[in-house]
Design brief:
The protein has 281 residues and is mainly alpha-helical. It is built from 10 helices and 4 strands, in the order ββαααααββααααα. Strand 1 and strand 2 (15-17) form a beta hairpin.
Length: 281
């Protein structure tokens, strides 16, 4: 028999978490997310549109004097194993760390779990809107030069996954068929890494755990830039959708919590009334 995890004070809130329901919700949400993410993906969006949006992002960064991605990557291009390690970090930590913290919250901090579960869901859903409205060619696809609209522009980005390797490749048939290579703005890698810190960082007891969580978003920011998978503005977009996701997620969690409290109070009143009736008999 499944033992439910009760959130907060079981007598006041009555909110129960069941692992199989949570796993089911995650699976269903991820299926819907994957479908929607690829619906407006690189298989259907004209490269010229994604390229034009990349030019807009680069123009903004240049206007504020912070178009630093080529210079950052150039420093590390001669370090093959170093870049391979960051390719693996980029391709695996995004899912592994987020899933691990979801389980950690569920088991150790169930009172925080609903708010941060809903925050993650809203953050991801808002990112889908960004992917569909602003398909963006990442730096690694710009290459040494690109020609669109009659203009020839030179770039100095390297696709580190292609050149240095990792655990997978965008050029493989399976990955290529299911990936949206223009899903860059906002960066969910960075948004989810910030989620990991805010969801668990304030309540962990060990200092080393706190600092690992605090460093993780910065390591993710470095990873997405040095591998040329994102511009730093994509990370800013990821932080923005996380903030909006928290506003929506926390409100939704409070709504269900209050509804559960009202149901618990009504149940207690009915029980008291039934006991009183039997006592008079």
């Amino acid at each position: 028999m499944t033992t439910p995890v009760t959130v907060g004070n079981p007598e006041r809130r009555g909110v129960r978490l069941r692992w199989y329901r949570e796993v089911g919700l995650v699976i269903v949400f991820y299926i819907v997310y994957s479908f929607c993410r690829n619906l407006f993906g690189s298989a259907t969006v004209p490269p010229s549109e994604a390229f034009a949006n990349a030019m807009r992002v680069i123009d903004i960064e240049e206007a504020i004097g912070l178009y630093v991605e080529p210079a950052v990557q150039k420093v590390f291009l001669d370090f093959d194993l170093f870049l391979r390690a960051w390719n693996i970090f980029y391709g695996t930590f995004h899912f592994v760390v987020t899933a691990g913290i979801m389980v950690w919250l569920y088991r150790r901090y169930p009172a925080r779990y609903p708010t941060w579960r809903d925050t993650l869901a809203f953050t991801t859903a808002l990112a889908l809107i960004g992917f569909s409205l602003f398909p963006l060619m990442p730096p690694r696809l710009l290459g040494e030069f690109s020609q669109f609209g009659g203009h020839s522009l030179s770039f100095h980005f390297v696709d580190t996954l292609k050149e240095h390797g990792g655990l997978w490749s965008f050029e493989s048939g399976a990955v290529g068929n299911v990936s949206n290579q223009y899903a860059a703005m906002p960066s969910l890698h960075f948004g989810w890494s910030l989620w990991c810190y805010f969801a668990l960082g304030p309540v962990v007891r060990r200092r080393w755990t706190f600092w690992l969580l605090a460093i993780y978003p910065w390591a993710t920011l470095f990873a997405i830039v040095v591998t040329a998978n994102h511009y730093w503005l994509d990370a800013a977009g990821g932080a923005l959708v996380l903030a909006a996701g928290y506003v929506l997620g926390s409100r939704l969690a409070r709504y269900f919590e209050r509804r559960a409290e009202r149901r618990a109070v009504a149940t207690d009143d009915e029980r008291v009334g039934a006991d009183g009736s039997r006592g008079r008999d």
